[in-house]
């Protein structure tokens, strides 16, 4: 008897387009460099266009995108200009998007959020196990070579096996101290856990994605969604590096997701 083929795990991935100060958004450049399949029967469903950095187009896009692709889990990607590391974010929230206009000059009023998401908690956290994911992600990226980042950072070409010792220029997204999941110090880890998704389109798509994923899960209502912030990568070498780091994150996410399913979590 022929062996039964393992089920394919479908992962939806999006990246953002340009916004003020970022004419070439590395999040979509990385997403567009990803392959369509990965080892361990992983299928990547990369949205073929850069998502506009605008509230209402995101709200309009996600329901149809999630319903048509039916992903097992999803990864939305955005850029954090001031960071020199990659991070997966734990939580996001609504009612914080009325202070900053998007690329279309619009805001997203609290009343709009209440109308669309009034049945949801104000603050949402992914149901993916990010602690297990990040631990695996760090191990998987030990041999990946960091290029020389083209920003003003002092990051030099080296492998991740040697922690990058740089003074991190924290972005506005991290003005609030992080609530770390363990006592393990992550300050020098170039791929890490974070809880500072911010109050602009990165946080907005993360919250909207978690809501939409739970609504497509008619039984479990699980929010199997992740958001990754990437540094301001610019050159082809840097973007290829970002692609490789992202591939290892997807592998780690899927491994953790499968483990949760096996345990009935």
From TrEMBL:
<dbReference type="InterPro" id="IPR016125">
    <property type="entry name" value="Peptidase_C15-like"/>
</dbReference>
<keyword id="KW-0645">Protease</keyword>
<dbReference type="GO" id="GO:0005829">
    <property type="term" value="C:cytosol"/>
</dbReference>
<comment type="similarity">
    <text>Belongs to the peptidase C15 family.</text>
</comment>
<dbReference type="InterPro" id="IPR036440">
    <property type="entry name" value="Peptidase_C15-like_sf"/>
</dbReference>
<dbReference type="GO" id="GO:0006508">
    <property type="term" value="P:proteolysis"/>
</dbReference>
<keyword id="KW-0963">Cytoplasm</keyword>
<keyword id="KW-0378">Hydrolase</keyword>
<protein>
    <submittedName>
        <fullName>Peptidase C15, pyroglutamyl peptidase I-like protein</fullName>
    </submittedName>
</protein>
<dbReference type="GO" id="GO:0016920">
    <property type="term" value="F:pyroglutamyl-peptidase activity"/>
</dbReference>
<keyword id="KW-0788">Thiol protease</keyword>
<dbReference type="Pfam" id="PF01470">
    <property type="entry name" value="Peptidase_C15"/>
</dbReference>
<dbReference type="InterPro" id="IPR000816">
    <property type="entry name" value="Peptidase_C15"/>
</dbReference>
């Amino acid at each position: 008897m022929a062996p039964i083929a393992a089920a394919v795990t479908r992962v939806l991935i999006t990246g953002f387009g340009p916004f003020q100060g970022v004419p070439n958004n590395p999040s979509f450049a990385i997403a567009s460099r990803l392959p369509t399949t990965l080892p361990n029967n992983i299928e990547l469903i990369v949205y073929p266009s850069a998502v506009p950095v605008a509230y209402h187009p995101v709200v309009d896009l996600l329901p149809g995108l999630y319903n048509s692709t039916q992903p097992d889990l999803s990864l939305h990607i955005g850029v954090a200009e001031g960071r020199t590391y990659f991070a997966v974010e734990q939580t996001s929230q609504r009612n914080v998007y009325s202070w900053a206009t998007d690329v279309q000059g619009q805001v997203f009023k609290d009343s709009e959020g209440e109308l669309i998401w009034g049945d949801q908690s104000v603050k949402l956290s992914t149901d993916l196990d990010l602690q297990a994911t990040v631990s695996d992600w760090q191990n998987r990226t030990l041999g990946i070579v960091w290029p020389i980042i083209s920003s003003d950072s002092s990051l030099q070409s080296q492998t991740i096996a040697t922690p990058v010792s740089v003074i991190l220029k924290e972005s506005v997204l991290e003005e609030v101290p992080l609530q770390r999941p363990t006592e393990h110090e992550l300050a020098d880890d170039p791929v890490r856990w974070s809880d500072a998704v911010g109050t602009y389109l990165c946080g907005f798509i993360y919250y909207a994605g978690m809501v939409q994923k739970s609504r497509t899960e008619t039984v479990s209502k699980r929010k199997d969604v992740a958001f990754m912030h990437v540094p301001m990568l610019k050159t082809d070498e840097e973007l290829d590096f970002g692609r490789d780091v992202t591939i290892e994150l997807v592998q780690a996410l899927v491994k953790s997701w499968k483990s949760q399913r096996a345990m009935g979590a």
